[in-house]
Amino acid sequence: MATESERARKQIDKYLVSLGSRLRGLSSETSREIMEEIRSHITDKATMNGELIPEKVDAALTALGSPTELAREYTTDDLLLRVEATRSPLRIMDSLFSWATFSSIGFLVLIGSAFGYFAGCALIACAALRPFHPSTAGLWRLPDGEVSLRMGFGIAPPGGRDMLGWSIIPLGLIVGCGLLTLTTRFALWCARQYLASRLRRRQS
Fold first, then answer.
1. Per-domain residue ranges of the chain
2. What is the rounded distance in angstroms from the CA atom of residue 119 to the CA atom of residue 35?
3. pLDDT tens digits for 128-152?
4. For 97-131, how does the pLDDT look when each residue is reduced to its tens digit (9 = 90+)?
C-alpha cells in the first residue's frame, strides 16, 4: 500500500504533467527548468522531517493555481523576456495581450500601449499623406470646437480650420515617432516591473 508520502509525490507528478502539457510553446530547456523550479518549490513548502505531507502539498498547489493559469503566466514571462531583445511593437503587443488575459494591470498597460501606438502611427500617416491631400489632411478644428486629425480622404469639413498647415509634416513625424518610442519604453518598463514582481513572489 502506498504511503502518504508516495501519494503526495504522485499528486505532485500529476500536477507537473498537466503543467508540462501546457508549456509546449516554450523551448524544451525552458520547460524543463520551469518544471524543476515548481517541483522544488512544492517540495520545500510541503516537506516536514524529510517526508512529504499531503495536506501541505494541497496547500502549495492551491497557492500556485491551476496548471493552465500557471502555464499562461510562464508563457507570458517568456514572451516579455524575448521582447527585451527585439523591441518589436508587434511582439510587444502580442506579449501584452497575453499578460492582459490574466491581469488587470496587464490589461491597462495593453490599452495604454495600444493608444500610444495608434496615435503615433496616425500622426505619421497624416504627415505622409499631406503632400497627396494638401487641402484636407491635417489637424482640424471643427465648428463645434472638436479637434480632428484627418488623413485627407473626402472633402474638408465645412466651417473647419486647418490648425497646423504644412507644419503637420515635421510635427507629425517628430511627435509620431516620439510617441512610438515612448510607448515602447513604457511597455518595456511595465514588463520589467511585472517580471521583477514575479521573481520576488517565486523567491518568497
1. 1-65, 69-204
2. 42
3. 999 999 999 999 999 988 999 999 9
4. 988 988 898 999 999 999 999 999 999 999 999 99
Please write down the HEC assignment for all residues of the chain: CCCHHHHHHHHHHHHHHHHHHCCCCCCHHHHHHHHHHHHHHHHHHHEECCEECHHHHHHHHHHHCCHHHHHHHHHHHHHHHHHHHHCCHHHHHHHHHHHHCCCHHHHHHHHHHHHHHHHHHHHHHHHHHCCCCCCCCEEEECCCCCEEEECCCCCCCCCCEECCHHHHHHHHHHHHHHHHHHHHHHHHHHHHHHHHHHHHHHHC
Could you tell me the pTM of the whole model?
A: 0.77
